[in-house]
Amino acid sequence: MSERATFGAELRRRRRAAGLSLTELAERTHYSKGYLSKVETGAATPNPALAALCESELGVPGTLVPLLPREPVRRRTRPDVRPSGLPPATPDFVGRATELRLVRDALEADGGICVVSGMGGVGKTALAVRCAHRLETGFADGCLFVNLHGYDAGEAAAAPAVVHDRLLRVLGVPAERIPADPDDRAALYRSCLRGRSLLLVLDNAANAAQVRPLLPAEPKCRVLITSRSRLTTLDEARHVSLDVLSAPAAAELFGALTGNPPGDPVARVVDRCGRLPLAIRIAAARLRAHPTWQLETLERRLGAEADRLGELDDGERAMSAAFQLSARRLGDVESRLFGLLALHPGDDFDVHAASALSGLSLRETDRALERLHDMYLLTQPEAERYGFHDLLREFSGEAVLADVPEPDRAAAFRRLAAFAVRSAAQADCLTTPQRFRPEIAFGEDVPAPVRLDDDEMALAWYRAEWPGLVALCRAAAERGEHERCWQLAFFLRGFFFTSKLWDPWIATHRWARASATTLGNRWAFATMTANLGVALVDRGELDEASARYREALGVYRELGDEHGEHTVLAHHAWALHYQGEHENALRDLRIARDHYERTGNRRNAAITTRGIALTLTALERATDAAALAEQVLPVFDELGLALDAAMTQNCLGWAWFHTDRHDRATAAYHDAATRALACGSAYETARAYTGLGNVAATRGEPEVAAVFWARADETYPDLDPVMVGEARARRLR
């Protein structure tokens, strides 16, 4: 029995013992099923990479490598030297099964050109080399590996003519036969590849212009390219974009390097490394270099965001250096924008926010963002929005923003904050019409607000932007932009009320109160305090809400602001109502309504009347309550207050329910649900569904009730029975 047959027979025996089919082994090793079959029968020559991989996948270390033939038989298409310049494969390679398959499929397809692109440190070269080792045996004339030095420190990107010279020498062309003229050299290169079957790995490409002259015309040749740029203009290539490792793969890599089993500490460490393979390897090396460190020590050191990049440096490798190689290829416009974007405190942003920061036009900004995205310096979590990898944000703030003069940084943040207030004010006007708004001044350098044509567009804008606006509100307070802090909070309040986002609502208004105090702006302080009370009532924190209302009421009276005073009385009445003090609530609501009617404030008068109706229902005067609700519904429709109309129909349904007018209650709740859905209020929609379920249960229709209650739970689970009468009635069924 020959050595080759011995290897193949042992591989077959071990595979079957492991319960794997040839197809399953092919999927695990990324070698083709046909090739593995030939290896097992002795028709194809095994290689060390295959032997080591099969040992690993089958869990039989040391059993296959010794059986490799000493003198591999090579198929030759020509008598030239068969080059193989691949670097060693990276040990402890984990994950990437999908990407490996995509690269293999691309290289096996017609044309056979694949671009693997990704940010610095994500493992592009490791993936390419691993693929090349697995595929090399399928190329009769071997493999060529060339570092194009597109992103190398201290070394210019290799010119195509220089690469041609190098490759021609490897292919056996004597130096004296290599033409000096670049075009002639390129022609000779293509000629030398004619008829060959060769895998060409072009690592670390700068751009498509550097790569295109190196592409062979021979269809039996294949090309695998890696780059920190997407190289999208290589139309003939298939493109594989490499992202960070999955959480399990990242933990597996760290464990393989350090011996630490998966668990919460490892998960936190790799998350703080941004799940970048290079960062994980550096962190593991740091841990190995300090035997006295515990895993928690490394975790704590990486947890200090201000010096995380400093910790990711093992003396030979540094994440900041890897990022610098990408940043140095930026033009002045892109570099300045990249630095200024670090001032944006949100997780993502759009071109409008970036334009406000940079002071560039939308078109110029869009082009610069595209360039940064093409170079993997920005992510694109969804269409039209951009963001940072955590480590790149830190790098941008530390290394790139430092080159922007401080006055320019301060002006950029002021523009961003003012633009955000301007846009939020426009959105608030569309989603909460008729609301009182203070006059806000904007400088000439503040960009126009985003275009919002109607309330639906405004609501969609809020949904996309609110997390960033909350972060910006806090950053404004921290940077001393106190006017913009309380203004942002003011214009977020309506959306937070509709969406019931209580935590950010409360947080923004607490920052805003502090900013108003710093400014000495008593009106802003009282308004932020009163709006904070609304949020606290909405969340059921009634005692604290009452304390805030009393505080705001005192300031408004001190200022002689009758509108503010009566608005707080009306808002506090809701807290009194929910606390069971219905008579006191009714008294204050009527005082407030009388003031609004005297001053011609139809919106607030109607809202307060609806509150009176709800209170009358609690006082067992539901017929009177229904009459008031029916009276104010046309006012809300006339004023375009869709959410208030939905709330009024729910109030009407609640009143009719208490008078046993089930048909009328059902009609009111159905209309409330339709209106609430249209204006994006999951809370009022769920309230209406709960009411419909209650009516059905009272009528003796438990199946119908269950359907409506299930809809309510799906739409907005856990309605508070203290705040929502319908939820309280449901509990009694």
Total strand segments = 8
Largest sheet data: 5 strands, parallel
Instruction: Return the CATH topology of the domain at 97-241.
Output: Rossmann fold
Q: Strand arrangement, largest sheet?
A: 2-3-4-1-5
Quick rundown:
47% of the residues are buried. The chain is built from 34 helices and eight strands.
Protein architecture, described:
- With 733 residues, the protein is mainly α.
- Among the domains are: 3-67, 434 Repressor (Amino-terminal Domain), CATH 1.10.260; 97-241, 3-Layer(aba) Sandwich (Rossmann fold), CATH 3.40.50.300; 247-317; 322-404, Arc Repressor Mutant, subunit A (Orthogonal Bundle); 609-731, Alpha Horseshoe (Serine Threonine Protein Phosphatase 5, Tetratricopeptide repeat).
- The chain is built from 34 helices and eight strands.
- It has a five-stranded parallel sheet, sandwiched between helices.
- Helix 22 packs antiparallel against helix 23 (502-519), helix 24 packs parallel to helix 26 and helix 31 (662-678) packs antiparallel against helix 32.
- The longest helix is centred in the middle third of the chain and has 26 residues, at 406-431.
- The radius of gyration is 34 Å and the shape is elongated.
- Residues 11-64 form the HTH cro/C1-type domain.
- It holds the Pfam family AAA_16.
- It comes from Amycolatopsis samaneae.
- This is Helix-turn-helix domain-containing protein.
